[in-house]
Amino acid sequence: MMKKLLSLAVLAFVAFTVTSCVSTTPPLYSWYGYEDAVYTNYKKPTEKSQAKVLEQYRYVIEKQKGSRGVVPPGLYAEYGFLLYKTGKKEEGLGYMKQEIALYPESEVYISRIIKQLEK
Amino acid sequence: MKHILFIVAVAAMLVSCGSTSSLTTLAEKYPGMYEEQPVTIVIMPPINQTNHAEAKDYFYTTLYAPLCEKGYYVYSPYLTMEMFQQESAYDSELFLEGDLSKFHEVLGADAAMFTIIKNWRRNNIGGALTVDIQYTLRSTKTGQTLYSRGGTITVDTSVNTGGGGLFGALADLAATAIATAATDKVVAGRRCNAYVLTDFPKGKYSSLFGKDQKNPAGKDHVTATVR
Q1: Tens-place pLDDT, residues B92-116
Q2: In this complex, which of B4, B71, B79 lies closest to A78 when CB atoms are compared?
């Protein structure tokens, strides 16, 4: 009886701790060095920083280990936009369309960008 | 036996969420978030009330990743920035209390995140950088404020070289000055976001979406010193 009650108490304790601090959820996406690479390229764009940021996008796109297992919102669009601006137009448009496919709520905006680019 | 159970229950309460400072729930504090359930958020260019002109730039892009992590579709600030500049909408003051329906039309945004940088002060000798930022999320459909919270975060970048005597003290001072200057000021903004947005209700892409109404909301203003 004593043992049973004790194990019940332990169970209650564990359940309580698990449910009470739910804010510590694992990250939805893997960002790696995305923020620093993109910001550096934005502040002082050089050939080197641009090459680095393109590589960074590919890495983030290919190595998603976050709990959702998909690329974060906006990332395909950013990558596609940069590819387009650096001359890889078809590939760039492809990524922008991938953004809409993955996040349909982005369609209003992304299709507007595509239209502007194709003008 | 009852005593043991009681002690266990009290211990569980004490260790489980020590940081909880208020008994208000998220649903009580931010009811609009649960009524409207915004999916898409546009980050407005920060409103800079300091003399530090660069603060706006430093801070603008730091909100993107943390809001994505809360489970929302966030428009890339690198893409929207150009649009804001072209449409001469780079001054968010114009929209802070104004009509936001245009952002729903043009972007498909459900809500707009405004930030006001109230302080961005650096003390080279002390090696500390203090930022004071107010966050306000407004609905583009109803115009109502869905979320509002502020934070004063001090980033202490002081470095201890560990040397003794006068030379050691001078070296420490020099190292601190360098560390502060070299510290990317973006870090201060990131820390502030991390502290303030701890009680931001979860969005569509979070596994906690629609399940966090009863979680505790934080104070209106959070103050902290971090390294």
Answers
A1: 988 999 999 999 999 999 999 999 9
A2: B79
